[in-house]
Amino acid sequence: MNSSELLQAASHAFAWTPAWFVSLAGFVLAIGLALLFHQLVFRLLTRFTSHLGPFQRSLLQQTRGPTRLGFIILAISTAADIVPVTAREAAILHQILIVCFIALLGWIAETALDMWTNFYLRRFKLDAEDNLLARKHVTQTRILRRAGDTLILVLAVGAALMTIDGVRQYGVSLLASAGVAGIVIGLALQPVLKNLLAGIQLAVTQPIRIDDALLVEGEWGNVEEITSTYVVVRIWDWRRLILPLSYFIEKPFQNWTREGSALIGTVMIYLDYIVPVADIRRKVEEIAKASPLWDGRVVNVQVTDFKDATMEVRILVSASTSARTFDIRCETREKLITYLQKAYPQALPRQRMEIAPRRGGEPEQSFAQSDGHAQRLG
């Protein structure tokens, strides 16, 4: 039995009901059967893939939405040939199906892009000790995926508008960036487009990556998220600094993990001239070797300057990450000052007083000295 015979049989069976009710019931029944069939198919597929890994099961779940929409479009298209509809209703239904089909294609494209990026990023682990390569690929892939999602959305909306006679010119303007509407939209979206282009530049040149340690706007933190328009920096005290993508193209900032995560920490201390520098060097090496934070690469002690009453001692010690570098600097300060307080308490900066008699038995005069500056007291 062909579609015309089915239509005639349905008309005779439901001759006592309004035509619109028959049409509505037919579409509702078709959508219900499509959803039921889709549910059964996915249950079978889920059972067959239950022995596979979590990645394969997640891929199956990602296709659940697009395939459901495809089943619904097919069911409505089939029901339109069976239920009684007027020529005007058929034209409207045809237009709706075309728009839904374009939306389905866009959804499939975004799903395919998302599945490909997830499959590509499976090889890289951000929680590894040396995650430079992982951060590079994750950053590049995420930015390009968001740019691709935006491009797919623009193409899908433009194509859908071009199928409607009343707004076809807006679809053409959106796709070709021509006409007054295109100029107005371009001006209105200038900040968005600016950040979108900046995101593509960041993905290609990669001045920052996910989990990079940055010093930006006077704050230190790690890159937590890079979206299509802004970057989220997680500051060390758990605050979040939100910056537009264009900021990292136009303004200077410090990237502490650009080529690697290892850093050299600096500790400055000011001591009296009487302290033996060799003992300080030996103690710093002992502190570094005993610390689990030290990466075994750099430990050094140098006298970098002379003041009036103190000498400036610079201590260098390295660690594998920026967070460990900060911790080992604090540990070195604490243990070194404890050592100096016990071994060389007189070497710590202090205020001195000297009393010297004048010639001829004149009254004595006292001087207070701190950091090389003498002050007459009497």
Structure write-up:
With 378 residues, the chain is an alpha+beta fold. It has three domains: 3-179 and 194-202, no CATH class; 204-255, Roll (SH3 type barrels); 263-347, Alpha-Beta Plaits (2-Layer Sandwich). It has twelve helices and eleven strands. The strands form three sheets. It has a five-stranded antiparallel sheet with strand order 4-3-2-1-5. It is elongated and about 130 Å long. The model is unreliable at 178-189 and 367-378 (pLDDT under 50).
Fraction of residues in helices? 55-70%
Q: Please indicate the percent range of residues in DSSP E strands (runs of 2 or more).
A: 15-25%
Please count the beta strands (DSSP E, at least 2 residues each).
11
State Rg.
Answer: 36 Å
The tally of helices reads 12
Shape: elongated
Total discrete domains: 3
Oligomer: single chain
Largest sheet: 5 strands, antiparallel
Secondary-structure-derived class = alpha+beta
Low-confidence stretches: 178-189, 367-378
Task: Write the element-wise H/E pattern from the N-terminal end onward.
Answer: HHHHHHHHHEEEEHEEHEEHEEE
Determine the N-to-C terminus distance: 123 Å
Physical arrangement of strands within the biggest beta sheet: 4-3-2-1-5
Mean pLDDT: 78
Give the topology.
Layout: H1 3-13, H2 19-48, H3 54-62, H4 64-80, H5 87-121, H6 132-162, H7 168-176, H8 179-188, H9 190-205, E1 213-216, E2 219-226, E3 230-235, E4 240-244, H10 247-250, E5 254-255, E6 263-271, H11 277-290, E7 294-306, E8 311-319, H12 322-343, E9 351-356, E10 365-370, E11 373-376
Antiparallel strand pairs: 1-2, 1-5, 2-3, 3-4, 6-8, 7-8, 9-10, 10-11
